[in-house]
Amino acid sequence: MSPILFVYAKGGPPLEYAIPRIAAHADVHVLALAPLPRTTESVWLPACASITSVQPREGVELVDLICSHARRVGAAAVLTLSEYAVVAVAHASERLGLRGAGERVAGARDKRLMRRIWRDAGVPVPGFTEVHTPEDIATAFEELTPPLLLKAAWSAGSTAHLTVWNEEQAEEAWKTGRSVMEASSAQGYAELHAADEGVSDFLLEEIVIGEASDWFDEAGWGDYASVEGIVAGGRYHPLCITGRMPTIAPFTERASLAPAALPEALQRRIEEVSRAAVDALGLDTCATHTEIKLGADGAMWLIETAARFGGVMTTRQVETVFGLDMIGMLVRELLGRDVDYPRRMLTEGEGAAGSLVVLAVDPEGRPWSELPTWDFEAVDWPALLAPGSRVELVREHSLPPGSRVPVYEEAGGANSMAALCFLTAESGPELLADCGRILAALPHALGAPSADRPTPGSTA
Questions:
Q1: How far is it, in rounded angstroms, from Cα 336 to Cα 374?
Q2: Which CATH number does the domain 127-206 belong to among 2.30.40.10, 3.60.110.10, 3.30.1490.20, 3.40.50.720?
Q3: pLDDT tens across 137-164, in order?
Q4: Sign of the CA dihedral 155, 158, 162, 163?
């Protein structure tokens, strides 16, 4: 099989799922820019032809490194599944003459550039102002209608997102946001191609009001959805839609669900808006994950498009419900092989699958009164699930057993996650109900902190 260079960085689907699917179509040579997850290496390690771990590098040096290693292994394609390495891999692929996201990849990463492109193309986006100086904050409150959302331009997982009502709050939030991005960068959750900009670049945007009840017949759904897809040689192939449970303030994801319980006519409307958004970005060959806010009376606004697959377990959800191995499809596309895309975006699947994030807040977003230790095995899962439902722990994205569940911090977003669970159910309504019962039962299902149980890092 042809060699492929897989550039690993923080984020993306777990390696125990991803690497076997890459290896089904290519010899996988791993260039690791972050520590590899050893808890699951018995699954992914045998599928690797070689592994090279390196110290993190940035900008042109990182592109040089990727190109050098790709030449060394004779790579016919270069792939990453991490948000933070997308830009560097795209530039390296261009330099090597290989298929990739293309020269306009930054438009699918820098939220400021993304919104400028969409605004100029007539794609619906919230009003926004870029923040470079305190004067930009004053301008934002003159031109936009508060409350406003402060966003880090290069963040992921709702990191460094804060709601502000006035200039003074915005200036404090900007300081907090930069501190959060610096802390995230130290943990490996930061843009690798534009490291300095990744910490300091922000924007303020109007908070558009979603209305899930105008789209979904049943309660419990969030007011936005995502279109998962692939761009192949500049042609966009939307594949399916995934739904969400309501976010936690400000906009941290709690659960991703497939399929989205939307009539086909509404799914087709979402599909067309996503097509306009992706086409405007001018991407070449890459995965896409496009998030769309769903408002009253059919209104929609683009939240963002990423030049990679949806995070954590999105790819597995899609394969479970729709039968599409999106990672395998992208690998084949990057290698120039035939790919069997659906003629139209799929709107129906079989069964249901979801990713549930464990955060220390209740279903209404209130902080837990006590912080238990995390222990997946301590929970009586059958008591919380429908008879045909199943749950498993995603070890790569979960704290070790015995770790104290972190306090949820709004600015930290997904950085406050204690664990990630993957669920399957016989139907969408059952999956939604399963998630609701789990959220209501935690933290009591984990057990309250014990005075004689040492916290991680302490000695008994």
A1: 45
A2: 3.30.1490.20
A3: 999 999 999 999 999 998 877 777 899 9
A4: positive
